[in-house]
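Protocol step 4 of 6: structure prediction from sequence.
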Amino acid sequence: MLNLKILSTRDEINSGNKSVCYLCEGSLEEYVKSIPERYTEYDIQRGIVKNVYLDRLTKSILANKYIPPIVLIADKFDINGEILKIKVYKILDGLQRTYRIKAIYYALNLFISEIDNNHSKKKELKEITKYKLSKMYKTQLDEMNSDITILWSILRIFYDENKSLADLKTVFANFNQWFEVWVSLDQKEQINKMLVLNAGHKPMDIKHQLELLFLNIIHPKYLDNFVRSKDANSSFFYKRKQSGELHLSHFISAIISFHYHEPISVDAKFIRDLQDDLDEKLEELKDYFLNETLELFIEFMKQLDIIFFNEYGQTGIEWIGKETMLIGIFAALGKYYKQQDNNLTDFLNDIKQKITINITNLKINEFEDVKNTIDFTKLNIGDTFKNTTFYVFCHLFFKNTTDIDWQDLFKNKAKRSSYDCE
């Protein structure tokens, strides 16, 4: 339970639904004690990221300096006069701050317990080096998801600024923190506000932004099929990918390429253009994410893993695990599908058979060897992989071309994505 004093309210109408935002105030200690056990697992939040400015929060808290409001979504709550009693909540904005605030709280209590009524320990810690401190408290800090930098900052502030133990004991209880608490806010608006709130912060990962935009049209029951960008760096996902593992942002990029029949580039401009016309674009693409169709694409992509693994082992899994390869393959698939009369189920089954028959001809081992000889200072590596893969599969589907020379493709097809292969 988190009890907050309501300072102001603001109503907002979105798609005919009324939402209310409460500007509140409460103690930082009560907030830390109320943090849900699985607070980092909110679907639309990104993972914990490094941020040198946030890592300085220790000094801000111990000096009782301003920390920007933390934005919460209240799922269960009561209002008693001016008090908002929140029973269940999620963190919409402030996950990074919360993670560090919690770490500071536990490190501070560890330090207090060590020196409280223990004069010898107080004297020992005053003279200790950071290295020795880290060795002494590593296990305890790891258990509380804190770190030596925080403990060292607390120690130095205490001794160098002559803080009293009484001051330390009341820091969190006396720290009045502002909160914005939203109620009756649907997931679409939660995502929209998340993107706006992060606009001025450390840039949100492009892949995570892409995932957020599509969470509104993907049924939650399918999310277990995917690894999320907040859990695994999409650029290096392929290095640890196992057969059947799918990355959500890669999957979305592949489906969009299928729809547009050409390789796309998921960059800041692409995300911005998508956001500018989001409702129309999602309406245009939503059929691919309906239950039956989504299941077909998920199963097809998992079958591709098996096909490539059976022929090339882990090299094949890593190759098909690169986003650029999937974009190239699915762009060619989309181009081919628009010329067919088959339904999607029969089409994908035919494609699996076609790729299985020609899997040896793809020469993935040769691709890897040639890749290591290319001077990518003169080429965009992502465009090169997308465009050449698109070319290969486009010609495989339309013309049954199996004479593949990756060296020649990297040299002559790397900078083009539109080929006359129909």
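Step 5 (inspection) to follow. The chain has 19 helices and seven strands.
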